[in-house]
Design brief:
Blueprint lengths: L3 H4 E4 L3 H10 L1 E6 L5 H12 L3 E9 L2 E4 L7 E4 L2 E8 L13
Amino acid sequence: MTTYYDVLRRPIITEKNNYLNSALHQYVFEIAPEATKIMVKDAVEKLFDVKVVRVNVINVPTKRKRNLRNRRTVNRRTSYKKAIVTLAPGDTIAVFEGVK
């Protein structure tokens, strides 16, 4: 990985993550499979100009899903790696804030 943009793939925005944003100052990103906590911390600090307190990394496993028409066929969703980034109090990331 050569750039910070390769480490952070996309933000994950769900209802649970919106609660984490408002209550705990935590933001969730999908990251590259070979990314480490230190790489994620450096990327978030450089790209969004914030102070990162803590980074938690989770490997989300693959999930199986059956087809509705033919119940024998099994589709698989791919696995991915996500990071939960805790920011210092007072820091925010504008991507997650919504329309103002």
